[in-house]
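Input record, target 12 of the design panel.
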């Protein structure tokens, strides 16, 4: 859950930054999400019982902080209904 909070904090802060910094935050959020998803997939194959034990946290992470979600938020160009600075 901490990773999800960090990802969304980076996305939230991106709306207040200038052009290069806001895309840096978006890329950092995307790569953090991508790395966390890869770690989750690794755990799924190696420690299936652990992922099963925390299944609700896993589902919440995949819905709100997956790389697909981050890409969708970026494509909509409306992080919290605010257009990014150009």
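The sequence produced for target 12 reads:
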């Amino acid at each position: 859950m901490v990773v999800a909070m960090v990802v969304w904090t980076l996305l939230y802060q991106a709306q207040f930054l200038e052009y290069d910094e806001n895309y840096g935050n978006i890329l950092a959020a995307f790569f953090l999400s991508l790395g966390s998803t890869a770690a989750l997939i690794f755990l799924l194959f190696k420690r299936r019982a652990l992922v099963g034990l925390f299944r609700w946290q896993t589902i919440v992470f995949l819905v709100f902080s997956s790389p697909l979600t981050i890409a969708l938020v970026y494509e909509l160009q409306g992080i919290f209904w605010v257009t990014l600075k150009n």
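The chain has a mean pLDDT of 83.
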